[in-house]
Amino acid sequence: MFPKYDVIVVGAGHAGCEAAVAAANLGSKVLLATMNMQTIAQMSCNPAMGGVAKGQIVREIDALCGYSGIVTDHTMVQFRMLNRSKGPAMWSPRAQSDRMEFAKKWRMMLEAHPNIDFWQEMVRGLIVKDGRVGGVITSMGLEIESTAVVLTNGTFLNGIIHIGEKQFGGGRAGESAAKGITEQLVELGFEAGRMKTGTPPRVDGRTIHYDRMEAQPGDDPVGRFSYTDTPVLKDQLPCYITHTNQEVHDLLRTGFDQSPMFNGRIQGLGPRYCPSIEDKIERFSEKNAHQLFIEPEGRDTCEIYINGFSSSLPEDVQFKALRKVEGLEDVKMFRPGYAIEYDYFPPTQLSLALETHLVKNLFFAGQINGTTGYEEAGCQGLMAGLNAALAAKEEAPLILKRSDAYIGVLIDDLVNKGTQEPYRMFTSRAEYRILLRQDNADLRLTPIAHQLGMMGSDLRMDRVRAKVQSSAAIEHFFRNTSVSPDAVNQYLQSVESAPTVQKVKLHSILLRPQVDIFGLAQALPELQQFLTPYDRESVELAEIALKYEGYIKKEEEMVAKMSRLEDVRLSENFDYHTLSALSIEARDKLSRTRPLTIGQASRISGVNPADVSVLLVHLGR
User: Fold this and answer.
1) Which residues, 6+ apart, have CB-to-CB distance to 99 below 8 Å?
2) pLDDT digits (tens, 9 = 90+) for 50-96
3) Which CATH architecture has domain 567-618?
4) 342: exposed, middle or buried (C-beta count within 10 Å: 0-12, 13-18, 19+)?
5) Cα 477 vs. chain centroid, distance in angstroms?
6) Is 27 helix (H, G, I), strand (E, B) or coil?
7) In the Cβ-directed half-sphere of 320, how many Cα atoms lie within 13 Å?
8) What is the model's pTM?
9) Element (H, E) at 282
10) CA distance linking residue 589 with residue 609, whole number of Å
11) Architecture of the domain defined by 202-339
12) Which of 181, 310, 400, 441 could form a disulfide with 63 if both were Cys (CB 3.0 to 4.6 A apart)?
């Protein structure tokens, strides 16, 4: 009935979809197995993509030929570039998405790929022989063979949904939990744990008093995620901001004795940076109000997402509290918020390729690794799918370094440090964030995808080359073109910058913190005329290169210094227990993680500088 596949991907959430695309783009024959074909790429929580550090990840996924950025551009209803008031390392694109159109577009793009097949059924186990995966076993007992398998089960592994004192099995509201895989993996020697996440209530937008809230419009001009020719968004929908108050908090407290978080029914840890409303009230009891974002689920629905109000309290308590929020006095609730508890596998059991140590050619991606967020899941899926396809061809895996991408930072953190709570990416986690900006993801990663043969054509690489050339031409113009005081002083005065008394290079004017390249161009017709042929991204890239040249060079020097440690290879099969000079903790952690380089070993929690020195001495360094 089934051919033998190169790669089987289990689960069709954000991680599974990107895994299928990545493997298929490398020429693998892929089977995407899901419990429900109607929920492919479902936005289980908020209807948005991107955000702080997450937006950088979406652009990196796009630069590596993933689909998340393209799908988002086609289906978003609002776009904002966050942190514009800060330096470019912090700029983070975010889009409000049309939930239904997002899932529909994803499915259309997956079905259009000739290398992807689909099967709708729960996978209950794996075919494992001699320490190597050989396929999957479905709930009906079908055995489907493959060379590699990627597990992207999300919150479905033994998932339990909690609403007040009620609890029932499920991987998402209205959908069954997945059984069997955890139990088999534990029998094979894997360590498993429990985590928790939650979602807020959805309400009827027709019953909201928007005039009592603060409107939050999108950007003008509108940005995009993808480096391809995706459509430019028109007719943006606004979001709105309101706040809880003391009356809301008092009402919510009446349900605390029935909260599964507080009475011990939930054992798993929830996301630190996206706490439930009851958790916020408890942890920040000195605060009289918390911000809520009122976000549309799409253009053609009145369903609204209450961002900031995640809760597992009884539904009647949620409803009464919502009606005390300004603007929600007459609101009707479509469905209550809930918490969900599920199995995960500590990611220290993986290699940097996201392949498990215990079973060859078996890869994990997404929430099964202890992460939270669509973007974190999507980038893991992409890397796991890509490396599964390479493993099926018996080729070396692709490992992104911390200096290559936020994706590299995320995977390095997970594998080397592990996580006891849902891991979320932040710009502060990346030590080279000036190099890992959202504007240059294509320059960093598209050449890698092109070299692997993921493109199908040279169009993307041609765009990268053109962008580099355009940016270089703009930089050259600024370094070699002078401007007189008469031409520029009026503009400098308007931005509260000191006037110049002599002719100076445009470069020196641009270095002033108050000056930006587009404002300067409006004041100087010659500059405006020069910049007209260039696209906005190339102009911004040149501006950043000129303004932050010193910082960029400093980080590049740090990368070069650290890369020397990354070049010192370690044997994956080395017995660290034979090195008595290592601390006991280091021997244990190194044996579990099996680092590939000295650099990776130095980032493992519990491995100190003295241990690194012992390893270097052992290697004759």
Assistant:
1) 43, 47, 297, 298, 301
2) 999 999 999 999 999 999 999 999 999 999 999 999 999 999 999 99
3) Orthogonal Bundle (1.10)
4) buried
5) 37
6) coil
7) 13
8) 0.93
9) helix 277-283
10) 14
11) Beta Barrel (2.40)
12) 441
